[in-house]
Amino acid sequence: MNAAIAIVLIVVALIAGGFLGIFVAKRLIEKKSQLTQESLQKIVVKAQNQAKEAILLAHEQIARDKEKFERQVTIQQDELKGEREQARQDKLFIKQKEEAIEKKEILIAKKEETLTQKIEQNDELKSQLKEREEERKVQFREKLDNLEKQYQERTDKIAIKEQEISTAHEKMIEAIERAANLTQSEAKQRLLQAMEEEAKKESGKILRELQEETLATAEMKAREIIATTIQRGGVEYASELSISTVTLPNDEMKGRIIGREGRNIRALEQATGIDFVVDDTPEAIVLSGFDPVRREIAKLTLEKLISDGRIHPTRIEETVEKMRKEIDIKIKEAGEAAVYELGIFGLHPEIVKTLGRLKYRTSYGQNQLSHSIEVAKFAAQIGAELGADVTVCKLGALLHDLGKALDYEIEGTHIQIGVDLCKKYNISEKVIHCIAAHHFDIEMESVEAVIVQIADAISGARPGARRESFGHYVKRLEQLESIAGSYKGVDKCFAVQAGREVRIIVKPSEVDDAAAMFLAKEVAKQIETEMQYPGHIKVNVIREYRTTEIAK
Fold first, then answer.
1. Which of these, 440, 433, 468, 471, lies nearest to 454 by C-alpha position?
2. 246 φ, ψ (degrees, to nearest 5)
3. How many C-beta atoms surround the C-beta of residue 55 within 10 A?
4. Which three-class secondary structure state does DSSP give residue 327?
5. 95-118 pLDDT per residue, tens
6. What is the rounded distance in angstroms from the CA atom of residue 123 to the CA atom of residue 422?
7. How many helices (H) does the chain have, and how many strands (E)?
8. Count of alpha carbons within 13 Å of 33, Cβ hemisphere only?
9. Is the sign of the CA dihedral 321, 322, 326, 332 positive or negative?
10. In this structure, are strands 362-363 and 275-277 parallel, antiparallel, or unpaired?
11. Mean pLDDT of 459-477
12. E strand or H helix that includes residue 429
């Protein structure tokens, strides 16, 4: 019984121990599971936190990338917009250029047509001239044959008269011996005296007739040579004007050329000495000035500024200086082209360069380089007809007005300046004599000098070659600038507005404001005293102080 109870108790204890073990194990498992869940929850929370941080960082990076991308897009859009605007402007510029080219092509076509007509007319004139030359040669040969025939007839008559005189002499001797009872020697002496007087009278008469015919023939031949020379050398002549026109791409460009408060156009006028006339003329600006060199520099400067697009005072001064250098190159090329056209070689480079300056020098509206080339051609043709030294004629005629290229800078007449320059560079004495004598300053000692003077007169006297009023106008403008430039402290002076205004730019370090006012009054007073002019002349004194620094 006790054993059974013990067994039961043991069994119960075992069962209770089993249940307790199970319960303890379950509790341990639950506790361990709880710890695992808490660890997992912590890991999840930690992972969630890290994920949130990563998401925040990703959002920030995305925001930064988006902002950077948007900036790049904005920049590209701006660049694209600028490129589109530039393309639009380029397209507009190309269209304007195409229109300008089309206009120029039309003008060129018209000029080609005109040139073709002139060539045809020239060929016709050459043909007519050739026919006239042939006719004149035939007429001259006929006249020469007639003169020879007349001379032979007169020679025969003289021989007959001599025979008659001889017969009369014999008869006279017989008569004298019979009637006068003279000795033979006395009769012979008287007869010889009578024959001598008769022969003198007859020969004088014949000589006078031959002299008159020779003079008439020589005058006719001289007229023929001069007429032929003028016909061969006759060219169309265009007088030099005192204005130039610059074509603009559009009327908006006028505002850019004028600049804010007129600063650009003032800078242009002060730097070039040329008056820029901006009026209602569509797409054009007129440049007015008597000096062709200044006017050409101003024209090239304005065209360069328009094509470049940058127009401001500093750029204007730089461009003017650059164009001056280009004009110097053109002057040299003009001299070389002139000597090449005439086939003259071996001249000193300074002579050629000085000759090229005549391209921008006029006399009574006649371009001096064109005039010199024309005179050289005339002189060569006349010299060839008369058998003179053609080389001396041509070179003397080409250089006869060489001094006019320097008479603005050197004291003396253009003849003396030209002679001195030619002596300096070893030009031959014969050529120098042609230069010195072409205005009758010295006596002509060679036929070449006479030919140069005649050729100069032919070129200057052709209808339309010169305009006297233009020469007086230029001299008046030169005198204006000479008076203004004679005062101390004057840096530059320009006669503008067709001589109605003289602009004087003074050195600010030497002339103050009060002295500038006094200078204007003095110049105006001297102009009133020494010059004759229509209307009024405005004296404008400009005093401008500039300070320049360079940022390094």
1. 440
2. -110, 125
3. 10
4. helix
5. 888 888 888 888 888 888 888 888
6. 39
7. 14, 8
8. 6
9. positive
10. unpaired
11. 62
12. helix 429-437
